[in-house]
Amino acid sequence: MTDERFFNAEEAYSRSELEALQQERLRATVKHCMNSPFYRERFRSAGLSQGDIRSLDDLHKIPFTTKQDLRDTYPFGIASVPLGDCTRLHSSSGTTGNPTVILHTARDLDQWANAVARCLWMVGCRPDDVFQNTSGYGMFTGGLGFQYGAEKLGMLTIPAAAGNTLRQLKFFKDFRTTVVHAIPSYAARLYEVMCQQGIDPRRDLSLRTLVIGAEPHSEDTRRRIEDMLGVKAYNSFGMSEMMGPGVAFECPGQNGMHIWEDYFIVEIVDPVTLEPVPDGEVGELVLTTINREAMPLLRYRTRDLTRILPGECPCGRVHRRLDRMKGRSDDMIILKGVNIFPIQIEQVLMQFSELATDYLITLQTLDDNDGMTVEVEISEKVLTDDYSALQKLEKEITRCLRDEILITPKVRLVPFGSIPKSEGKAVRVKDLRKQY
Ligand code: ADP
Ligand code: ZN
Fold first, then answer.
1. What is the DSSP letter of 198?
2. Any idea what the Cα angle at residue 247 is, between residues 94 and 207, rounded to 5°?
3. Listed residue (212, 209, 232) closest to 128, CA to CA
4. How many CA atoms are closer than 13 Å to the CA of 301, on its beta-carbon side?
5. CA-to-CA distance for 178 and 296, rounded, in angstroms?
């Protein structure tokens, strides 16, 4: 490429070039899916044949694929190639029922690395950068997914893996790390330990770019993390079923994540009626993979709620932008008949500069009444011995939360660093309610 901004030619495609490629790839994918017993049967029972899918307008004829389908066909039932052609398997935790399995061919892995490299290049990473990955390696795709992407770009990579925060900080310093990948809750943890160790990231470290993703976080949380670590932080979206990280990523404009439409066809549907919603309205993200061999998924219901940001992006890419994830449909809390997303609570909390970024929502039953307690850490900069000031602050937070979620929670301010941290994605909600 001659244009420094782009890693791949497809990033600079016009809308019509992109759609022509999508159409060609959709047809090829549907044809290829007929090697999968699962999709053959799906098409047969829907009275569809592969020839019925000729253009993007025909996509809606294809039945949705769900997480339950992945569970029902565990482990290899959706594959479209013989197992001998696959070179890697990733599996999700499977807390409810069968785990799910995603297979990759060598080509899939190469295309995945390319997508991640493209994302990192987009936010200014170059071969002379030093990239440190604080994700768990193993089944969690944030480890190997970023590893191979960063290598493809040509950076010096440090596969530090999760945990051992003191060692992470030592690596930052000794290896002059410039780019870090961390989930947002861990980025906050890194700062906490820097404070304890007397490390000033601006003075003592070379960090410039942070990639944060894998869990929902608000715009205010991002700004705070940027401020704490002295970096630019870019939102990264991915999921194992689609490959892992590299599905959608913010550009330097930091306004929505470009979803790579040469890899995926995007739909946003109403989660109840399953009809498409207009651009700009929130609904469930549905993705069709059009650049995968081992296990393409057609119209996969991700359960993630988001919207397409209308309008063009000044960066020159026409790949549409997804807004921050609102959460998964199954993250929704129903308390006293009111629907609440944890991110709504986070948005309110992060408006208070006296608070740090860690919080925990507990739902419990007292005297047969369901209620919510929100514990939130106070910022390390706030003095905690002024009791009346803290009480006033608790009251003010309670009032703002009530305005947002229409329920009055009990708010408890707790010391900086006191909420237990989990090794992987942050646990924000504990549901201890009595089950009737
Ligand atoms: P698991 O399903 O076990 O969490 P994944 O790593 O596949 O494993 O997680 C993918 C999910 O993580 C997505 O479906 C979405 O809910 C969430 N996620 C990923 N990236 C982001 C992001 N940038 N913002 C919010 N949520 C995200
Ligand atoms: Zn852009």
1. T
2. 100
3. 209
4. 24
5. 35
Is the pLDDT score of 1 beyond 60?
no
- For tokens 């770009």, the residue is 153
pLDDT mean over 138-161:
97
Q: Which atom of ligand 1 is nearest to the CA of 142?
A: 6
Q: Prior bond to 75 cis, omega within 30? A: yes
Protein residue with least CA distance to atom 12, ligand 1: 214
Q: Which of 431, 376, 379 is nearest to 398 (CA)?
A: 376
Q: Is pLDDT above 60 for 209?
A: yes
Q: What is the DSSP letter of 241?
A: G
CA-nearest of 132, 123, 158 to 6 is: 123
Per-residue confidence band for 97, with pLDDT thresholds at 50, 70 and 90: low
CA distance linking residue 416 with residue 427, whole number of Å: 17
What's the burial of 432, exposed, middle or buried (CB within 10 Å: 0-12/13-18/19+)? Answer: exposed
What is residue 361's predicted lDDT score, i.e. its pLDDT? 97
Cα 50 to Cα 21, 29, 296, 379: the distances in Å are 18, 10, 15, 58
* pLDDT score at 367: 84
pLDDT for 308-362, tens place per residue?
Answer: 999 999 999 999 999 999 988 888 899 988 899 999 999 999 999 999 999 999 9
pTM equals 0.92
User: Is 237 near ligand 1, meaning CB less than 6 Å away?
Assistant: yes
From 264, 304, 343, 425, give the residue whose CB has the most ligand 1 atoms within 8 Å, as the site to mutate. Answer: 304
Ligand with the closest atom to the CA of 320: 2
Ligand nearest to the CA of 99: 1
One DSSP character per residue, 19-77 reads: HHHHHHHHHHHHHHHTTSHHHHHHHHHTT--GGG--SGGGGGGSPPB-HHHHHHTTTTT
Q: Which ligand is nearest to the CA of 139?
A: 1
**Whose alpha carbon is nearest atom 14 of ligand 1?**
239
Read off the tokens for 81.
Answer: 């190639």
- Residue 280 to residue 278: CA distance in whole angstroms: 6
